[in-house]
């Protein structure tokens, strides 16, 4: 599940959709690295349950994909439609997340009888985007629905601890 909290409360659906698309990009990158595809997509949205004086709304919904997929654009299409169903105006949301489940090997994806097969071109585009991002850094190439403006929804990192075990420059020096 990819569901970091927003840096501040968000009431605007378009900003939440942007955050959801970015979370889906992270989640699909992870399952593609493991050569998997998802059959189910769950979208979760929460207000801040610690602020009891504010109206509360917590919702989630799951959709069964017509065929297993690890494509950012396909999963974003379904997840965004779920978000538009569970989103309610007038609430200050603190978190949106996506859970990809029903994982199967991406080479063994079974299609349904009356559903069009997955577009092979999407798989090629996704592979090219992954290679570029691997070489030049995360989000060098991204889909437009992930947004290009300053991310007002990013998590706060002011109280984040250092990475003593994973980053050389953060290792403590004894003198």
Automatic annotation (TrEMBL):
| GO terms classed as biological process | DNA repair
InterPro entries in the cross-refs:
DNA_pol_Y-fam_lit_finger_sf, DNA_pol_Y-fam_little_finger, DUF4113
Q: Which SUPFAM superfamilies match?
A: Lesion bypass DNA polymerase (Y-family), little finger domain
Q: Which Pfam families match?
A: DUF4113, IMS_C
Domain (DUF4113) spans: 125-172
Citing just one GO molecular function, the answer is: damaged DNA binding
Q: Where is the signal peptide?
A: none
Tell me where in this chain the DNA polymerase Y-family little finger domain is found. 5-113
User: Which named protein is this?
Assistant: DNA polymerase Y-family little finger domain-containing protein
